[in-house]
Amino acid sequence: MQRIAFTIAEVTQLTGMSPDTLYRLVHSGELPAVRHGERGKLFIPRTAVEKLFRTELTTEFDRR
C-alpha cells in the first residue's frame, strides 16, 4: 500500500532537500502540507512531492 503523505524528515530522505528548504516551500505555499496531531506535525501529500519533481515516487516507506 502506498503512503499518501510524508513528514518533512521523510521528504528530506527521499529528495535530499534540506528541511529548511522544505519548511520554506511549505510556508510560502509552494508545497502544500497538513498539520496533524497534538504536536501539529506537518505532513506533505505524496501528490505534492511528485508534482514538485514531476515523477511518481516508489519509496521504501511504501513497503512498510
Can you describe this structure?
This protein has 64 residues and is α+β, with helices and mostly antiparallel strands. The protein has one domain: Arc Repressor Mutant, subunit A. The chain is built from three helices and three strands. The chain is globular, with a radius of gyration of 11 Å.
How many domains, in number, for the residues?
A: 1
Strand content: 15-25%
Rg calculated over all Cα atoms:
11 Å
Biggest sheet details: 3 strands, antiparallel
**Beta strands, count:** 3
Output the CATH class name: Mainly Alpha
Q: What would you call the shape? A: globular
Provide the CATH topology: Arc Repressor Mutant, subunit A
Unreliable residue runs: none
CATH architecture term: Orthogonal Bundle
User: What is the mean pLDDT?
Assistant: 87
Structural class by SSE content: alpha+beta
Helix count, per DSSP? 3
- Strand and helix order: EHHEEH
Euclidean distance between termini CA atoms: 8 Å
Q: Going across the biggest sheet, name each strand in turn.
A: 1-3-2
In summary, what is this structure?
The protein is an alpha+beta fold.
Topology:
Layout: E1 5-7, H1 8-15, H2 19-28, E2 34-36, E3 41-45, H3 46-53
Antiparallel strand pairs: 1-3, 2-3
